[in-house]
């Protein structure tokens, strides 16, 4: 819900937001001195928190022409932000009230910020609530190792949680979900409340090549969540590698495709006797023959 209040002296637009950790939420503030005398505006910000870890800090700033005030607030150290801004007669200035969410937190942690601007002839008061939600980031891997990296990263995250639980009983797994679409080569997608710790978790994981900067919306990858027949994209005569079963690692040629059973019949290339083998379509991987 957006709440805005304006008058001839002050424009404020604050918007409730749901955002991931490590993001900046910008809110415009315009101050106008409509008088013939110098006027001082007093800006105060008070915070209320509903979060599980009282030590987690939020960063606040009020930024404008030749003015930048920064504060850190948390449930354990919740101090009021006070800023005085003086405007010359008929002067107008634009500012940004910026809330930078913590580097990490818990799902649905919230902070409510009450902003009040007082001046000689009146005041304006607004509030906004920021709620933390998971983010999706892309992780780069060596091509062909996407699933193995996803498995190893999940195991590393679980071990990390167990280690942290020894000193912090509320510790949770910092990786909420991992997706490794078959169609995407060299990348996997990770849902997390702590995007800043993914590089740490990926350290020493074989095939992990780093976290891609920025976030990914669910709309960008939701089409990968729709189940597709395992035989999609397979063609007669195509060269494949068996990745499961007794012939794992062998190269073969597709001789027949059964879409109903999602099975393919292949002929092993290096076999002395051309014996057809029928396997599940998910047990093969297309080879790049270019």
Secondary-structure element sequence? EEEEEEEEEEEEHEEHEHEEEEE
What name is given to the CATH topology of the largest domain? Immunoglobulin-like
Secondary structure tally: strands: 20
Strand order of the largest sheet: 1-2-4-9-6-7
The main sheet comes to:
6 strands, antiparallel
- The value of Rg in angstroms is 28 Å
Alpha plus pi helix count: 3
What is the averaged pLDDT score? Answer: 91
In what range is the share of β-strand residues?
over 45%
The CATH architecture of the largest domain is Sandwich
Instruction: State the low-pLDDT regions, or none.
Output: none
Report the helical percentage: 10-25%
| Rough outline | elongated
CATH C-level category of the largest domain: Mainly Beta
The CATH H-level homologous superfamily of the largest domain: Immunoglobulins
Q: Separation of termini?
A: 53 Å
* Integer count of domains: 3
* Derived structural class: mainly beta
């Amino acid at each position: 819900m957006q709440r805005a209040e304006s008058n001839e002296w002050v424009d404020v637009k604050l918007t409730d937001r749901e955002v991931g950790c490590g993001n900046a939420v910008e809110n415009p503030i315009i101050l106008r001195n409509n008088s013939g005398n110098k006027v001082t505006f007093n800006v105060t910000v008070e915070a209320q928190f509903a979060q599980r870890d009282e030590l987690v800090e939020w960063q606040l700033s009020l930024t404008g022409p030749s003015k930048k005030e920064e504060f850190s607030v948390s449930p354990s150290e919740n101090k009021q932000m006070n800023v005085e801004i003086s405007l010359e007669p008929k002067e107008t200035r634009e500012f940004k009230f910026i809330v930078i969410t913590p580097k990490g937190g818990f799902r649905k942690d919230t902070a409510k910020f009450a902003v009040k601007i007082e001046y000689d002839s009146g005041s304006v008061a607004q509030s906004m609530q920021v709620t933390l939600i998971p983010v999706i980031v892309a992780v780069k891997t060596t091509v062909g190792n996407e699933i193995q990296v996803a498995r190893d990263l999940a195991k590393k995250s679980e071990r990390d949680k167990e280690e942290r639980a020894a000193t912090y009983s509320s510790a949770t797994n910092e990786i909420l979900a991992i997706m490794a679409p078959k169609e995407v080569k060299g990348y996997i997608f990770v849902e997390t409340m702590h995007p800043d710790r993914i590089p740490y978790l990926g350290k020493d994981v074989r095939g992990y090549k780093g976290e891609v900067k920025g976030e990914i919306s669910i709309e960008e990858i939701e089409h990968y969540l729709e189940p597709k027949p395992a035989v999609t994209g397979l063609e007669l005569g195509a060269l494949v590698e068996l990745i499961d079963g007794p012939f794992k690692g062998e190269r073969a040629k597709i001789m027949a495709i059964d879409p109903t059973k999602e099975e393919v019949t292949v002929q092993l290339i290096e076999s002395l006797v051309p014996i057809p083998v029928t396997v599940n379509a998910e047990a093969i991987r297309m080879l790049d023959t270019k």
